[in-house]
Amino acid sequence: MEVTIIKGFVQFAQKIVKSTSDILPFPISLIDENGYIIGSTNPDRIGTIHPPSKEALQKNTVLIYDEEKTKNMNNVLPGVVIPLTFENKAVGVLGIIGPPEQVKPYAYLVKSYVEMMWQDAIHRQTKDLRLKAAETFAQYVLLNDTHNQQTLEQYCDMLQISYSSKRFCIVIDIGNALLKNTNIQNKIGDFKAELLEATHESFQCMRDSLCTFLNSEKITLLNSVKSEEAYVDTLQSFEKQSLKLMTVLRSFQIKHTAIAIGSLSQTIADIHQSFQEANSLIQYGEVLNISPKIYSYHNWKMLLGLLPEKIHTTYKDKLGYRLLPLLQDKSAAELAKTFITYCEANMNTSKAAKKLFIHRNTLIYRLQKIEEITSLDTKSFEHCMLLYLGLRKQFS
């Protein structure tokens, strides 16, 4: 942590010097714990040694240097030096250049200002590093089918999440919303953090959960639960929580969002399966045109829509071969659309005809033609289910 602090100090030193110089009538320097000037009103001094700084750090007190005291000292100008502290530890020095009696009254005020700016910069840097670490971890654990257990455990320790907790993955697809917000590119980190916080709050996540961007288009939430019963409760409240998040995202001008939830994984090592499931649900949901774009296997409409997709290929091939005479008929598309609409109207000919904007007798004629070609009874639920499964995927 100490190395990170010093590195952050070096990175932001000159920026802090410039900001402080705008409000202070005296030149200043910032010196690291080894006595090197890392920020100065006079850039030529950067990288040079400032001998009194180590003494100020050792004594942890303000030291005053007048003309008489500095005349035989190398690279030391009249003024005061005062230690800078971070988390109650002196780790750097502030030098204010000028007649000691004039600059001393400013010493503690400027010290507080510099420390405040410095600590804010370090906290931001630490936060950014954690966000980047979380993104890297999500990419590793979600996009790979196999993982190194030691690597996973190290990531979990670093991110302070449990390796062994039961988890499921929620995927939030926000499209190109980040790319469209190029006008706030300099604050993109803050924007992403706000979106993650909104996601975390909407789904009432436990502390052990991990919410992060997978890429510029997708937010992933690796949520932990204590039991399978808790996961079932989550499924039941998923649509309500997703609608809440969509409302919040619209306040960020993110209007096109799709959200899906995957199955429960026993440990984080298996969470990629939950992610793949959620990701597939978004793709299927788009094809099935389900609205709102909230997808889970807890949704009957989703289950019904996926049924033709999930039938074994061998069985679908045999069914397709049996329906070949219908599929080869010159009116196949029209007949299929009529039949699918008939099924989705609960096998009610009047409702189906109304949906198709045709006369009821026309619909009955088409159904009779289907019966002639297939030898199936369109009044039989079992026969209709079989034919529906055979036609739904090809003519959806």
UniProtKB/TrEMBL annotation:
Q: Which domain of life is it from?
A: Bacteria
Show the Pfam families listed in the entry: Diacid_rec, GGDEF_2, HTH_30
Q: Where is the PucR C-terminal helix-turn-helix domain?
A: 335-392
Q: Cite the Putative sugar diacid recognition domain residue spans from the record.
A: 11-138
Q: Where is the CdaR GGDEF-like domain?
A: 150-282
InterPro entries for this protein: CdaR-like_regulators, CdaR_GGDEF, Diacid_rec, Homeodomain-like_sf, PucR_C-HTH_dom, PucR_C-HTH_sf
What family classification does the UniProt entry report for this protein?
Belongs to the CdaR family.
The UniProt entry, under PANTHER family, shows:
CARBOHYDRATE DIACID REGULATOR
Q: Quote the protein name from its UniProt record.
A: Carbohydrate diacid regulator
Q: Which organism is it from?
A: Oceanobacillus polygoni
**Record lineage:** Bacteria, Bacillati, Bacillota, Bacilli, Bacillales
